[in-house]
Amino acid sequence: MCKWVKHGDTRIDPCMVQLINYLKNNGYVTLGCCCGHGKYAPTVVVKNKMGLIYELLSKGMPVIPRSRRFYKRDNQCHYYIPEVINHGKIKS
Predict the structure, then answer these.
(1) pTM tops 0.85, yes or no
(2) Torsions phi, psi of 90, nearest 5?
(3) Per-residue confidence of the chain (92 residues) as pLDDT tens digits?
């Protein structure tokens, strides 16, 4: 399992840095990301030009009805997005 590192004022899982940089360079406004740490599938939270916040990597790109605190912690301190779990995207 990788551990997050601080990049300036953000915390990004090292395995996600290249993807996040690619998205930012191609016009995406990224608000959060997590590699899943071997328990959950990777997630990237983005905001579109109309202000809609959604998870980019999930089938159906579920909308997230919050402007912050996208991730919740499970009992083993792994982070996940409830809307993504509800869409059936969980790594078994």
Answers:
(1) no
(2) -140, 135
(3) 455 555 556 678 888 999 999 999 999 999 999 998 888 999 999 999 999 999 999 888 999 999 999 999 888 888 899 998 866 544 44
The tokens for 72 are: 């919740």
Helix (H, G, I), strand (E, B) or coil at 85: helix
**Long-range pairs for 13-18: beta carbons < 8 A, 24 or more residues apart:** 13/37, 16/42, 16/44
d(CA 35, CA 43): 6
Q: How far is CA 50 from CA 28, 41, 43, 71, 85, in A?
A: 12, 26, 21, 22, 25
